Every structure is written in structure tokens, then in C-alpha cells.
UniProtKB/TrEMBL annotation:
Pfam families reported for this sequence: MR_MLE_C (PF13378), MR_MLE_N (PF02746)
The keyword Metal-binding is assigned to this record: yes
Keyword Lyase: yes
Organism listed in the record: Rhodovastum atsumiense
The protein's name: L-fuconate dehydratase
Source organism phylogeny: Bacteria, Pseudomonadati, Pseudomonadota, Alphaproteobacteria, Acetobacterales
Gene Ontology molecular function terms on file: L-fuconate dehydratase activity; magnesium ion binding
Coiled-coil stretches noted in the UniProt entry, renumbered to this chain: none
Domain Mandelate racemase/muconate lactonizing enzyme C-terminal positions: 202-298
UniProtKB keywords: Lyase, Magnesium, Metal-binding
One record GO biological process: amino acid catabolic process
Length: 435
């Protein structure tokens, strides 16, 4: 019997991270990591529930909550799960394009697309729970044809067609079982941003970097962009702690113009950064390409603010991105993530998803496992971001061993929060905010 979706509710959950400056960067000095948290109920409460979220950094949550309510009313409540997942790509298209009045406030970008992510990811969570598998395993066990049916190829067929995608997936299928076993045994390589937040003092940063090295991390990311002299000083401290065999990455969070990015990165080049992330406006594809051409061999990483598959298509076509940092809650949920993962494989760009936000590491570990096992079949230049705060609020803990992510075990997409956390951090009425 198919599950019938009988209700969708949405909560505004905010964590006061601005008090400790966790998550701070040159553009976002005081962010409160927040989740627009969606719950899908089935069969009048008698069936399983699906949970999804989108990430904001505070006040924008009000807007996302309102957008989720509209999408849920129009496209989710009253539907059967089998009807949705039977042709998930077509359903996704209906959600993003089926109502011209909602589409107008995107299209496929901004608040409405963030809300799409929360709803779509909650549907994936529900489907995976119904199937008794974590999302990565649900994906890995699909045939190429089943996977491709989950993708909406609208606007990307000039670079990737459904039949090409099927052929790509078939080519790597013979090694899937071995790669799955490898992931279960040794996990997926990660990097930590936990020491590098811009608001942390230099003493704290040094101490956290030292602890990160002791814990086995081989890659660490530093926030830059507020002041170049400070950036140089902090990079020196990090190199003293990391040595020169470990990798150092830098993230400017969109703060520079193109020429500024070039001159600042030429100065920071002495610290041998693997990449500079979001050196300028996230929409400036040709600007990224110009920076890349002028500061090589430093790589260009971007994507956490690239709002849809068409942006990624152009970054790939322009040769403007060396590391694809897709964000699982900024793209319109997992269906669109699949489109980007497939295009990245075709263009040979490694996928290193964005994890800096509440719930993003949880989603992204499913994405990288799937990408490695079933799509790219490569670990070259691939690392998944790790931030260390707020994980205690989720039902299933993240497991990281010596800097490597272990696969999610429980069924679903991994972002189900503990009831007590939902109560405490509900905005504005939860205990955390009332006080
Ligand atoms: C506001 C977020 O913490 C942002 O700094 C995250 C980010 O850029 C990253 O993790 O990368
Ligand atoms: Mg970033």
C-alpha cells in the first residue's frame, strides 16, 4: 500500500551561534545557524514521517517557513508517496515550475528554492525510511535508469542527456560493491573548518588547529578576507601547526572584487593554499574564470551559493571551477543535486559539497558516498567539509574517524532532530530564545 501524505508542518529552528562566533566569516560575521525544518506525516499519523530542512543564518528563516507552507499546500498534502517517487524527476519539475505565481519569485533561486530543498529532502527522507535504507544506499541500489528518472534534465540537455547519464552510470557499475565495502571500512576523506572561523582569536585558532592535527585531519580550511595582514598572520600560524604535507584551504565568502582577489591570493600563495573558495560574487562565472587564470595553480572552489543546476552547468562549461561545492539545501533538494553530480562527473570536476551549516554535513555525507560508489568512482581531490558544532541535536550522530566520514547507518536522509532540540531552539518561543 502506498503511503498517503496527510500533513506537512514546518518549524523555525535557530541556534544562537553568533554568541560564540562559530560559523563566522568575512561576509557573515554574526550568523545564527538556523533550519527551516519540515515534517511530513503519512496516513493520518499512522505511517512513517519524513524530515527535511533548509539552512539559513537567522532571520531569513521567517521567509523560508512561509514559502514551505505554500509549496506544501499546493504540491504535497494529499499526494501518494509512490506517485511522487515513481517519476520523481517529473514531480520535481512540477514543484519548481507547476505554479507560475510561485515560480515568478525565483525561478529556481532564492527563498522559494531553499524552501523547495526542505520539502524535497523531506520526501527523500520519507522514501528512504519507507525502504529501510539511508539515502546513500537507496541511491546506490538503484539501476541507472531508476536514478535518471529522479532527475529533471530541463535546461541541461545541451551538456548531458538522460541516455548519456545512463551510459556513464553503467560504465562504473561493475566496481560498485567493492567501493561500497571500502566506504564501510575506511570512510570518505574529510576536511575541517572548525579551527578557521574568522571570529576566533589567533590563540584559539592555533589550539584548535593543533587539536585537529592530533585528531588525524589532513586538510584544514581558513577563513580570509577581512584584512590581508591578518590573513597572512593567521595562515602563518596554521602552517606552523599543519606543517607543509597537510593541505590548507582558504575561503573568502564572496568579499573581494576580481582584482582584489587576485592581488590578495598572490600574497597568500606563499602558504600554498589548495584552493580559494568563493573569491568573489557567487554569480560571477567569468570573474571566477579570470581569477583562476591569474592565480594558478591555486584552485577555485565555489558552489555553496550557486542556486541551481544551470549555474553549475555554466561554471563547468567555462572551466571556472576546480572543486564543486554544491550545497544540498540550496539546490532544490536531492533531485537537483543528482543532476549536478552527474554533470560534474562528465566534466571531471571533483564534488566536495558544502558542510558549513546546520544539517549540511549530515546531508552531504550521503551525497559523497553515492558519488564515489555509483558515479565518479574516484577519490582524487575529493574531501567533504566538517564543522564540529550542533551535531548533538540530531538523532543519528555523525561518525568521523581520523579525518574520514563513516557512512550514515539509520534509514533516511540523516537530518531528523531530537524532539528536545526542536523544543529548545524553536524561534521565538523555545527556552533558548525566551531567556
Ligand atoms: C556562514 C557559514 O558559516 C559560512 O561561513 C560557511 C562556509 O562558507 C563554508 O562552510 O564553507
Ligand atoms: Mg564557504
Amino acid at each position: 500500500m502506498s503511503l498517503k501524505i496527510t500533513d506537512v508542518s514546518v518549524r523555525d529552528i535557530r541556534f544562537p551561534t553568533s554568541r560564540s562566533l562559530d560559523g563566522s566569516d568575512a561576509m557573515n560575521a554574526t550568523s545564527d545557524y538556523s533550519a527551516t525544518y519540515v515534517t511530513i506525516e503519512t496516513d493520518g499519523g499512522a505511517g512513517p514521517t519524513g524530515h527535511g530542512l533548509t539552512f539559513t543564518i537567522g532571520r531569513g528563516n521567517d521567509l523560508c517557513v512561509a514559502a514551505v507552507k505554500e509549496l506544501a499546500r499546493m504540491f504535497v498534502v494529499g499526494r501518494s508517496l509512490d506517485d511522487i517517487t515513481g517519476n520523481f524527476g517529473a514531480y520535481w519539475h512540477e514543484l519548481v515550475a507547476g505554479d507560475c505565481q510561485l515560480r515568478w519569485v525565483g525561478p529556481e533561486k532564492g527563498v522559494i528554492h531553499l524552501a523547495t530543498a526542505a520539502v524535497i529532502n523531506a520526501l527523500w527522507d520519507l522514501w528512504a525510511k519507507q525502504q529501510g535504507k539511508p539515502v546513500w544506499k537507496l541511491l546506490v541500489d538503484m539501476t541507472p535508469e531508476e536514478l535518471v528518472r529522479c532527475v529533471d534534465f530541463t535546461f541541461i540537455t545541451d551538456v548531458l542527456t538522460p541516455s548519456e547519464a545512463v551510459a556513464m552510470l553503467r560504465r562504473v557499475a561493475p566496481g560498485k560493491a567493492a567501493r561500497e565495502q571500502e566506504m564501510r571500512e575506511v570512510g570518505f576523506p574529510g576536511y575541517t573548518t572548525a579551527a578557521g572561523w574568522l571570529g576566533y582569536s589567533e590563540e584559539k585558532m592555533r589550539r584548535l588547529a593543533r587539536e585537529a592535527v592530533e585528531a588525524g585531519w589532513t586538510h584544514l580550511k581558513q577563513k580570509v578576507g577581512a584584512d590581508i595582514e591578518q590573513d597572512l598572520r593567521r595562515a602563518r600560524i596554521l602552517r606552523e601547526e599543519l606543517g607543509w604535507d597537510r593541505k590548507l584551504m582558504m575561503d573568502a565568502n564572496q568579499i573581494w572584487d576580481v582584482d582584489q582577489a587576485v592581488s590578495n591570493m598572490r600574497r597568500l600563495a606563499e602558504f600554498d593554499p589548495l584552493w580559494i573558495e568563493e573569491p568573489t560574487s557567487p554569480d560571477d562565472i567569468l570573474g571566477h574564470k579570470a581569477i583562476r587564470d591569474r592565480i594558478g595553480p591555486i584552485g577555485i572552489a565555489t558552489g555553496e551559493h550557486a542556486h541551481n543546476r544551470v549555474m553549475f552547468k555554466q561554471f563547468f562549461q567555462a572551466g571556472a571551477m576546480d572543486f564543486c561545492q554544491l550545497d544540498p539545501a540550496r539546490l532544490g533538494g536531492l533531485n537537483e543535486v543528482l543532476a549536478v553530480v552527474l554533470m560534474a562527473a562528465k566534466f571531471g570536476v571533483p564534488v566536495c559539497p558544502h558542510g558549513g551549516g546546520v544539517g549540511l554535513c549530515q546531508y552531504s555525507r550521503n551525497v559523497v558516498m553515492f558519488d564515489y560508489i555509483a558515479v565518479s568512482a574516484s577519490l582524487e581531490n575529493r574531501v567533504l567539509e566538517y564543522v564540529d558544532h550542533l551535531h548533538e541535536n540530531f538523532v543519528e550522530p555523525l561518525v568521523v574517524r581520523r579525518g574520514r566520514y563513516m557512512p550514515q547507518v539509520q534509514p533516511g536522509y540523516g537530518v531528523t532532530m531530537k524532539p528536545e532540540s526542536l523544543e529548545r531552539f524553536s524561534y521565538p518561543d523555545g527556552a533558548e530564545w525566551r531567556s
